[in-house]
Amino acid sequence: MKVAVLGASGYGSAELIRLLENHPHVEIEALISSSQEGEGLMNVYPHLSHINRTLEKWDVEQLSSRVDAVFFAAPAGVSSQLLPEVVERGLIAIDLAGDFRLTPEEYRVWYGKEPAMNSWISKAVYGLSEWNREEIKTARLLTNPGCYATATLLGLLPLAKAGAIAKGPLIIDGKSGVSGAGRGLQTNRLFSEVEGNLFPYKVAEHQHTPEIEHYLERMGGASHVVTFTPQIVPMSRGILATIYAPVEAGWTTHQLREAVATTYHEHPFIRLCERGRWPRTKDVTGSNFCDLQVKVDERTGMIITAVAIDNLMKGAAGQAVQNLNIIMGWQETMGLKMLPLYP
Amino acid sequence: MKVAVLGASGYGSAELIRLLENHPHVEIEALISSSQEGEGLMNVYPHLSHINRTLEKWDVEQLSSRVDAVFFAAPAGVSSQLLPEVVERGLIAIDLAGDFRLTPEEYRVWYGKEPAMNSWISKAVYGLSEWNREEIKTARLLTNPGCYATATLLGLLPLAKAGAIAKGPLIIDGKSGVSGAGRGLQTNRLFSEVEGNLFPYKVAEHQHTPEIEHYLERMGGASHVVTFTPQIVPMSRGILATIYAPVEAGWTTHQLREAVATTYHEHPFIRLCERGRWPRTKDVTGSNFCDLQVKVDERTGMIITAVAIDNLMKGAAGQAVQNLNIIMGWQETMGLKMLPLYP
Amino acid sequence: MKVAVLGASGYGSAELIRLLENHPHVEIEALISSSQEGEGLMNVYPHLSHINRTLEKWDVEQLSSRVDAVFFAAPAGVSSQLLPEVVERGLIAIDLAGDFRLTPEEYRVWYGKEPAMNSWISKAVYGLSEWNREEIKTARLLTNPGCYATATLLGLLPLAKAGAIAKGPLIIDGKSGVSGAGRGLQTNRLFSEVEGNLFPYKVAEHQHTPEIEHYLERMGGASHVVTFTPQIVPMSRGILATIYAPVEAGWTTHQLREAVATTYHEHPFIRLCERGRWPRTKDVTGSNFCDLQVKVDERTGMIITAVAIDNLMKGAAGQAVQNLNIIMGWQETMGLKMLPLYP
Amino acid sequence: MKVAVLGASGYGSAELIRLLENHPHVEIEALISSSQEGEGLMNVYPHLSHINRTLEKWDVEQLSSRVDAVFFAAPAGVSSQLLPEVVERGLIAIDLAGDFRLTPEEYRVWYGKEPAMNSWISKAVYGLSEWNREEIKTARLLTNPGCYATATLLGLLPLAKAGAIAKGPLIIDGKSGVSGAGRGLQTNRLFSEVEGNLFPYKVAEHQHTPEIEHYLERMGGASHVVTFTPQIVPMSRGILATIYAPVEAGWTTHQLREAVATTYHEHPFIRLCERGRWPRTKDVTGSNFCDLQVKVDERTGMIITAVAIDNLMKGAAGQAVQNLNIIMGWQETMGLKMLPLYP
Hints:
Chains A, B, C, D: Pfam families: Semialdhyde_dh (PF01118), Semialdhyde_dhC_1 (PF22698). Chains A, B, C, D: Residues 2-139 form the Semialdehyde dehydrogenase NAD-binding domain. The structure is a homotetramer of 343-residue chains. Chain A folds into two domains: 2-123, Rossmann fold (3-Layer(aba) Sandwich), CATH 3.40.50.720; 148-311, Dihydrodipicolinate Reductase, domain 2. In chain A, strand 5 (125-126), helix 7 (133-137) and strand 6 (141-143) form a beta-alpha-beta unit. Chain A has 343 residues and is of the alpha/beta class. In chain A, 31% of the residues lie in helices and 20% in strands. The first copy, chain A, has twelve helices and 13 strands. Chain A is globular and about 60 Å long. In chain A, the strands form two sheets. Chain A has a seven-stranded mixed beta sheet. In chain A, strands 2-1-3-4-6-5 form a six-stranded parallel beta sheet, sandwiched between helices.
């Protein structure tokens, strides 16, 4: 199967290249970049200096005869423009941006941009692999979940489904490595500014908030507003979502762990930590694993659940490949069996 | 004024030495270490190689004739044994550990050790400088607040006092640089294990939890149970506490900011960030500043407040020196005027 | 093929497990650890929590019926004791320590320990894969090169062979991430001590010095004493060797680059950087690549060559697996095709 | 004394502000920035949010009535234009850039820019404080040494003066934290690119090379060409220069250490490490100290000397203030007594 990757100068694309180059059934046919068209890949990414390839410009006509699928790994607002004609030509489109995850109204409010056409948004299948497999199998337009949304939903959905979350404040304290902010040049992403630094941003304004609420309701049957604070942590990769919710009467730590364990019993990428051990971002670095733990704070009646993923893997490129595997009917772990890089 | 520092091989002591060496009114007379008695300071701390001094053993008799005050910067359980006889001999004792912050029952539960005698605990003055100045002025046994407790209380107390916190879950998501865990040898503090890593520990079991509840009630007049999750962040210094609480009806972000600004108007170490800007740990590194911000998430009815301090400064040694200044009637900022080290 | 890994609690073994778990022809049959026998792997390495396996004690008798090869990834002094009986039983032994790389006299001087028996040392084949392939093919006792030695020899040998190095000082300035120092508990490997820190150690006393001299002569036909200064850098992985040598009259940068390019033309793991670009450790992280560059400083008549490898990959576990591939007659890159993890 | 700082949005200026704000005899009257004129300091540097001050544009006329001295902390090429008129108006000018350190010919070659007028260059006094104190005392135009040059010259000059360096290759392997590269926006300074990364740049082409050669001859009486390789290290601050030179016959480690110790006997910022201990960048972080060590590798006849400074302190702002102190006849350590920040 031949594929193209659009947005090839970003970190999401670099990670897609890492995965697809070693995928037994996929061949990268084209790398597309509007900002660095004509540039050699090795100049954009010296770690790929042995790959002799040039970034191309976008040409959907010509592309549709060369590839079967396109990964969109560009900033928000690009795929809403370019993706529909890809699907119209019969290709599979996998979008790593947020252009097809929300209703047009939500998108306008939270992204502050013009949304895609609603008819296309309604065609999009949400690619939270473990929770939407049946729909994904037949998707032509797959919208890959946001990194924070992936971590949060994987942690919350088993609890919501089980009916363990009571009414009351639902708090998500998110922490992300700085690669999540992309490769764009900004002072507050310079090494000297990020090293030794930890800070919130977009407090109660992050665009993954409505995504979490939306799919928590759709997939978990639970209607909640969530208070979400994302924070930048001085590391390159990794997301840790620490989630707080009031527990429904009668639920114990043991029962919550059982609910999670049962839910993910046959899902190879989800690892429930042993009791007493908590997820660590480094335990999943470079892999598609999602580590999680849950506990009831009996003193306060709150559920605390923590979820760790690699933001570029399960939070982006890894899950995108996992979804391609599902669409194609391949083994879900194909090309994704690498163990975490440690240390 | 001559002082002694006990626990001289730890990070808290190293920071005390940094401050006291440049304090205009204080002279370090003795550095005491049970584990490294007889060792040269430069071997324990090569960054102090120009200071020719040897670590001494504990000898309260002899010490009482040499110094006027003793800083206890040893692990929990040491000062409960050694500190009373220091005070009995008429010296000032400033304890950076938690031995005198809680009731004996609380201490037994949360620290898992034998507490100090209650008669001594009741003599101790809690050294949250901005909130307890009058009592501190006459203290002989000062118990310096825990690092997480300092950040949390400085953020919560103005809101609690103002009556802005409604009933409901009070969540503290704490993040700390690894120096907070001390200099002891553990695998999970090695560079290769911490770099690129972020993880919770002592979830709902951290010993600063009762300290926060205790003094939030005592000083803020507000009785709450708190759900507290501490987390290790891959940086040496810094604490960020992100705090979530339901807002009392009618309070706006503007009003909360006013309440905070008014409270700290004359306190030189507390900096309320401009609206829209959030605290960053690196903005306070090496200084005694505490940066904070507060906001109401109107969608969810939650207050979000974030507080950044340097755990070794305002969270330990810096506040200890601030308290000594208050006790001695010196200018509160004496020896503490250094600006943050940036970058 | 079934293999055992000894020294299973160290970083070298963790990396071997990462590689061997995904190697198409190899199965890990036993993980052996003297210090943590009986411990579950997931307790030693939580990033491998999905692998249900227990560390075993050393039992050569029983092992010889279960496996075909043993990787020794223990500290110096262990394999000299345990390895010979493995080979005697007909197994393949691959030693990642330095016990079989030097003459007994050299070993005694530079390692300060009792050497292995000379008869065994003389049987050992030096596993610098690109330079010793023919001998490696038939090895039963393979001694894997040291991390600094690998980087240095890969950079120097093409120049030495070409006769481009004149008489005079040969300087190796080595820099290594801290994982190279292992997982043992020492104060100067704690995160708070290593972060923001860079320092030399074992100056002119590092045990890879004689290894470099020894094999530079044996494989490059060039007899030089080398001045070697290793330095710890605040990162987990990666070695950069910056090498200085007087250039033989007449050689230009272009010619040196040609010599290197020709030498490594058919070696897939060696990447000569484009002119003007210099190796960066992060460009090889997690991969078996070796990036290098060379230049003549015309002003001073010195060759400057820089070589980057991942110390745990091409500098240890990666090269060990590469050598196993050569011994077994498999494709040299088998199980080693992963691209670098970036960022 | 009132001073102005030009280039106020860079790291060098931030460090000057840190120092000058706490200097007992100096008051900052103006912060000047061409790129961010009119901006509040707190927006440029949130860590200084308690300082209410606005960046000004350059206006020499008006400035000369307000201040007595100007620190130039702008990129190369600015002070050559602006500084002369400052001196002509009778102010003291301290230049942290390289515009007045080299001959016009050298500058043109190594900086690739138009040099300052030679008449002004010849008026400039080189501010290597420990080696040029007498000239500095009467300087009106002081050119502060480059960061690498400071480290290198402080290490080499005592050996050169003593006659201990033989003819032959003189190698400087320099390593710097990334703050040395400034606050400008470049992809290769982003956190995700620098973390875990170590790489050479400007190999044999760095502009501090002629500065080292120039002043090694002028102050040390030794004419050498030097081979210099700078490298970026994943840390914010700190320089380590590892220097290799052939030893003149008869010199031992002990004698070299004596030569260094004697030279710097009365210089409070220079610390010769105890025998066996090597300089570490973190031991000087935030301070004006320079730590050094020297050794003869008897096997190879090479001197190895290593020097650590904080690039923003002794390598820039710290030495600039030290020089102001000397010019003004104040105590050399005034405002510079802070101990290193550790950890």
